[in-house]
Amino acid sequence: MAAKIKKGDKVVVLSGKDKGRQGTVLKVIPSENRVVVQGVAVVQRHTRASQANPQGGIVNKEAAIDVSNVSIVDANGKPTRVGFRLEGDKKVRFAKTTGDVING
After folding, report:
1. 3-40: string of b/e by CB count within 10 Å (b at 16+)?
2. What is the pTM of this model?
């Protein structure tokens, strides 16, 4: 099945503690139906000192949230569903609210 949400898309959170917040998709995990959104679902992780992080300590990072809890933002800044259509010989994603093609 084609991906309705891809890395780099601007999305809005529909439910949960971060409802209404917008961000960019950093990572998509299709096997688990989850996405990581920048600045959303931030959790604190206690890390041990390593070569990459010699200090160690508490690090803030984004946790994955379910893909059903996010929706793509259209040109008007509103959440929209995603449809697919053929333009020429290419399959493209489009916003159901405005009909505009979603880049990517």
Report:
1. eebbeebebbbeeeebeeebbebeebeeeeebbbbeeb
2. 0.86
For 52-97, how does the pLDDT look when each residue is reduced to its tens digit (9 = 90+)?
989 999 999 999 999 999 999 999 999 999 999 999 999 999 999 9
**Cβ–Cβ < 8 Å for 51, 76:** no
Q: Please state, in angstroms and rounded to a whole number, the distance separating the CA atoms of residues 13 and 17.
A: 9
* Chain segment 13-41, per-residue pLDDT in tens: 999 999 999 999 999 999 999 999 999 99
Long-range CB pairs of 79-84 (<8 Å, 24+ gap) are 79/12, 79/14, 82/4, 82/5, 84/2
- Contact at 8 Å (CB) between 12 and 24? no
DSSP codes of every residue in 32-57:
TTEEEETTSSEEEEEE---SSSSS-E
Residue with tokens 């609210």: 97
